[in-house]
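Run: sequence + aspartic acid -> complex structure.
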Amino acid sequence: MENINRTHSCGALTGKEAGNPAVLMGWVSRRRDHGHLIFVDVRDREGITQVVFDAEHNAELQHAAKDLRSEFVIAVRGTVRARGGAKNPNLRTGEIEVVAEQLWILSEAKTTPFVIEDDTNASEDLRLKYRYLDLRRPKLQETFRLRHKITMAIRSYMDEQGFWEVETPILTKSTPEGARDYLVPSRLYHGSFYALPQSPQLFKQILMVSGFEKYFQIVRCFRDEDLRADRQPEFTQVDIEVSFPTRDTFFSLIEGLVAAVYGLKGIEIPRPLSRMNWDEAMQRYGSDKPDTRFEVFLQDFTDIFKAADASVFRELAESGQSVRGLVAPNVSYSRKQLDDLNAYVKQIGGAGVAWIKIAEDGINASPVVKNAGQATVDAVIQKSGARKGDNVFLMAGQRDNVLDLMGALRLELARREKWIPEGKWNMFWVVDFPLLEFDANENRWVSRHHPFTAPMDEDVDLIETDPGRVRAKAYDLVLNGTEIGGGSVRIHRSDVQARIFKRLGFTEEEAREKFGFFLEALEYGTPPHGGIALGLERMVMILAGQSSLRDVIAFPKTARAMDMMSGSPSAVTDQQLLELGLSKRKD
Ligand code: ASP
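>> structure
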């Protein structure tokens, strides 16, 4: 066996090689037995080639081929020939087949728990348990080829721009990024723990103090959160930090990076990207990551209801709450469909949705709107710009809450009504976020990004007096309604950093205890600096046309944070617990 050289991959041979010898190695993808002719599709990561075992050509070999089963690993030596009638246009190697002259079975395979093909109906749990088989599916192999190309493109772009790739620790001290830490108990210091990094935030800033100026890393981050389809406990970020940036040069650097990445799939990113103010994003789209692929906007109807004759909406508007709505063009829902939409709104935490239906045969409205009087209904229709055949939807409540709910309703209607066109790539920056938000549960101000984000210079003095109005030098990169990255200019002065910690409710001792090393570092000459982190998997997912992060991570966890293949997390021995000081010896 050692003497056989594989001459071609299973995706390489075309009509040009007809008549040439070839040695292929790969997995049996399919075997079709036509009596004296046996066809075997051999698969490797580059493609599939049809191999023919012909009894007239070599009876003994044709007989041996009867033993081949799916997923056996084989080597075949043979001659390439142009296919007769049945060329396969769907296959790169569809013009040819290889007539087998020698066959080696390199390893046999048990019957696999599911068939290895793109269109599988095997459950995801089963596929994750046998992830090594799942990964053989051509679509997944293409996805990982793309992921590799993307990381290579990122590395070469960052290198060209003068960045150094620097690794930062995995066993570290926790950084407050807002999620729960994964902790690792220390064997040498019982009762003390390392934290797995939620991101390398403090280290990359410290590298700026060290004078590295331009840092990047394709880095694993860990967050112990309740998982959703678009989250994984460990994921990869393209992490970047720069010293002495201006906003325009920094944005154009990142735009160049995403252009290089999306260019791999022929997607052109218009540069410079546009920028949308956070307030506009919330007011018009009810989201800080607006999907701008369809033109339905939220509108403010509070004033109209304030002037209404009566109605619950009037009372709400008068008590300082907000009434927001949108026009759903060409949407004429039946009572059942309206009830259904109302149920959706309740399910996401809203009180319900009111409506005005502008039908051919007249205007109809839900009772809360009707009660406000005809003049109000007319005023809403006029302001909204709704036309015959449209439906206006309205909600009332506390401003931010209503904006969130209307934003969700806008997306839900888009999904139901198929408003989102294929093939659009709407990428832009969202800027001017608020620095802080009030956490009612904790009864204190918390950072929207992280506590190292710089406030706008003109807002610094509001930190103590009006924290809700302090805007941040923060930015998110949004694509088709998904946040693909976020970052900020950092605080580079220890006095401002101390004021922020105080505002967040840390005592001086707590701040010293948690980030003392970092605050001290800032005192030794810190350049102005800023950075960003882009979610690698989200980019791969979008470009690969996959719908789940699990499809772009080689060994992902389930929604319950389990690795089905290796069975982790799992119990450890008493001895290990003892060493870590996590259990006491039973005497
Ligand atoms: N560390 C931040 C994050 O993971 C990104 C940044 O501010 O650079 O979201």
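>> summary
The chain has 18 helices and 22 strands. Residues 208 and 402 are 41 Å apart (CA to CA).
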